[in-house]
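Dear colleague,

Thank you for sharing your sequence with our group. We've completed the structure prediction you requested, and as agreed, I am returning the results in plain text so they can be pasted directly into your records. Please verify that the sequence below matches your submission; if there's any discrepancy, let me know and we will rerun it promptly.
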Amino acid sequence: MAMTALELGLRGAVVALFLVVCAVLLLRYAAVHRAAHLGAAMGVAGAAYAITTAPFFPASSFGWSSPFIALAMGSPVIFWLWARAMFDERFALRPWHAAVWTLLAGLGVVSHNCWTIWPDLAGPCGRVLALATIGFSVLGIAQIPKGWRSAVTTARGRILIALLIGIGLQMMFAAAAGLAAMPDLSISRSAALALGAFALIAIWMILFDPPASQPAVARAHGGTGQAARLARSLANAGPSASSQAALNHLKHLMATERTYRQEGLTIGVLAVRLGMPEYRLRTLINDGLGHRNFNAFLNRYRLDEAKAALADAGQAEVPVLTIALDAGFQSLAPFNRAFKADTGLTPTEFRRQAIAGKTATDEVEIAGSN
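Please find the predicted structure tokens below.
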């Protein structure tokens, strides 16, 4: 009984930690980082897992316990989506993501509640759930290579990778234990929950910058009162001295040092180089420079360099692929798409027209001089 009481106390503390992290993410960081909502969802799922695996939790009941089971069993999908949001710049939530979560959560509710009434249904559902959990854990860890090169350049990125791998492996271990019908290891489970809670706290501390001006930013975006109007008016009054200095530093990195050529460059890596929070850099790019998003900002520099190289007659024999890679594109296909969208021409057509036009101009100048 003493061990059970200790375990219940530990689980209560873990649930509290999860919920505190969720509250901080939603109240202070949701407006400045797109992964905050998914991080909070992971916290809720972790709290639900701590509750549903506790001693004396109903083993089979379609009543009040079902929502907790659904939240806990749907956590592999949340983990996968959170990993995508952290490592994939182009990721966006879609309606079918909710459908996948609903399916997995439904399997969890059926497998948990039907053991005594429909064991022939609960068994297969449990096995499918375990396999799906392993699959989504692997998919989550598989997101790491998408941002590996940029993440390993910073301490925060390296810890993020370690956390993601650790959480994924813990989920796979729990699912594999279920498939193998291993005995219930409540103490190990509690330790894993505690580590998971502290992992979320570490994610909060490592991945999100101190929101010194965040309350004003959030109110400016979502509020309608006097403070919000004042914040918007200050934002529209023109760049401050610090903002102008940041813009100058940013332009120096891009135009002089050609940082846009760096492979795997992300807004987080660039923010670290500039020594500023990611949300502030995003504001500079969107509002200060007028770019649609970070990718559009990078492509502007990359396309300008590529167009200059394609128009240079001295580089007429240089392959288009080489020019694209030198400018910072990862492969030819995205370069061709971006180039066509920007100019209405393929790189080869642009090169042909530019060199032909320059040749004609030179001939006219030579004829005029004679």
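Summary note from our side: The two ends are 105 Å apart (CA to CA).

Kind regards,
the structure core
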